[in-house]
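Researcher: Next entry in the queue.
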Amino acid sequence: MKSIWLLTMGLVSFNALALAPDSGTPLTQNALQHALIEPAMVQQAIEIADQTDRNAGLEPPAGESPIVVLKGSSNVIITAPHGTKPKRGADLRFADGGGTAALAVMLNKLSCATVIYTRYQQSDDPNHSENSAFKDALNALINERKPVLLLDIHASHDFRPYDLDVGTMDGQSVAGSQQMLSDLITALRGEGMGNFSSNYFSAAKNATLTKLAKEKGVPAIQLEFSSTWMRPAENGLMAHRFAQVLQGMVRYVRSVSDSPDGVCKPQA
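Model: Structure for this entry, 268 residues:
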């Protein structure tokens, strides 16, 4: 009986603790964080993603821009240039999907980051073309906001093996700011991501947004999420995975910004 009691107590003691990610160090319950993301937030993201997907191949109505800028008081800028279809030369290319736009918009709402995303088909490719309206808007925002970080959101084909590929121009775009990259991986690993790739899509080729930011002295990371984390409208597990990514990104952006609680400050 005594041995059974000791075994039971041992199991209870172990279950009262969690192991810190990637270590054997016990983490007390008091150190765990409560969830930030509510079902209503994911539903809102689904509506944004659905609307973006419906408009992905449509030209903007007369007088409307395909680009949306949402200003926030945080000193982080987030871009989602391929939520709708871009054009390279005469070729209309595929979109990354509305989930990338939805993630960007929700980060504006929950972390007060400044966001630029697309809502209609584009006449160029902001992550490839030397000149574009999207780049003009980003340039103006960098000059105005003096950001500490740019995060450029994309989505990769389901068949690629990683959960996330980080493009840093082989380290050049985060030179002197490596801790920002390390903290990002830690935040997303804590939400269930496990497979990370470095610089498969390096953002070093062509006229990328990451390269633009780097040239203006702003640390920048191109984020190529597996699209299996970017399709909340499929509900069930897919919505759950999107909620995990959103939560990790919210925590991360808040941690590196001047809005650690996610509350927007009055803007001049």
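Model: DSSP finds seven helices and eleven strands in the chain.
Researcher: Noted, moving on.
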